[in-house]
Inverse folding.
């Protein structure tokens, strides 16, 4: 896992986002074992407590589960993956719309801009 951290956001949240992204994109699948806290903290060069907090939050959200003495694993269920995907899409769209409004675009202009960009991407790959 390669990750550059943004100073504006807590590291444990960035680690959580990366794991969620890996689950949504199927890099991590149901019941895949996550690296141990110690191993992952060494890879990412972060405090093990930061990793532990990320894993605990993911477990609290039902995204991963821990088996005593075995490690932490990705949870099961297509519903969980779909919910994660919808949640992440909503966050991206909310951020995009907020930034566009700050630039002075109206809602209609934002919709038109998105439609235009979709067509351009289709034409140019």
């Amino acid at each position: 896992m390669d990750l550059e951290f943004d100073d504006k956001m807590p590291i444990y949240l960035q680690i959580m986002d990366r794991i969620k992204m890996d689950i949504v994109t199927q890099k991590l699948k149901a019941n895949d074992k996550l690296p141990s806290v110690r191993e992952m903290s060494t890879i990412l060069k972060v405090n093990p407590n930061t990793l532990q907090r990320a894993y605990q939050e993911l477990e609290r959200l039902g995204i991963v589960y821990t088996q005593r003495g075995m490690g932490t694993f990705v949870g099961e269920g297509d519903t969980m993956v779909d919910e994660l995907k919808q949640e992440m899409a909503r966050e991206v769209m909310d951020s995009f719309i907020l930034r566009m409004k700050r630039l002075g675009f109206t809602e209609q202009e934002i919709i038109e801009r998105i439609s235009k960009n979709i067509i351009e991407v289709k034409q140019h790959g």
